[in-house]
Amino acid sequence: KIKKQIEFYFCDSNLPKDRFLLSKTKETPEGWVSLELIASFKKMRELGATTSKLAVAAAASDFLEVDQEVTRVRRTTPLPETDVTIPRSLHAKEFPGDTGIEQLESFFSGYGTVLSVRLLKADKKANADSDTAPISAFIEFSSKEEAEAICQKEISFANAKLEMVSKEEYLKQNPSASSENEKAKDG
């Protein structure tokens, strides 16, 4: 779980959208980030990640490396110039308000290879009871074709038919939605 989480932090899906971590990678020309900093993240603390456990996890990664002093981590490949996640992502809504990222990863894994899930926070103004109000999510798959095929299916979650569109279509329909990435809960 620690390896999966540290890879998520530095992956193409997350790092370009994570202003804080992206700024940390830019503090050194080589893109190094302190393992101590990564260990301080809430999710890592919940997983019991120490700097030594993080170093082992990063060293086992296909796209991360640890420095010789075993104190810092970085990507081995540059970030893509453009957002490669949009074409291979879809927007789905009508999930119960208490649905978690892990539930959605598990659910959508039955339909394709899930790379990431971003839960969008419920609109508190529109929904007085935002804990139970339906929520939506961006689900990123391994390819555009996979996401498109899933959008064509009629899928229900917790007895509710999901409304799904490509992320590209969603962003066209909701021009202000690009700011929703800042409000998204990642995993």
TrEMBL record:
Alphabetized SMART domains for the sequence: LA, RRM
Pfam families: La (PF05383), RRM_1 (PF00076)
GO cellular component assignments: nucleus; ribonucleoprotein complex
Primary location group: nucleus
Keyword list, A-Z: Nucleus, RNA-binding
GO terms of biological process kind: RNA processing
Keyword RNA-binding: yes
Domain RRM: 88-178
Domain spans labelled HTH La-type RNA-binding: 1-83
Keyword DNA repair: no
MF terms in GO: mRNA binding
Location(s), subcellular: Nucleus
Protein name per Swiss-Prot or TrEMBL: HTH La-type RNA-binding domain-containing protein
Organism of origin: Guillardia theta (strain CCMP2712) (Cryptophyte)
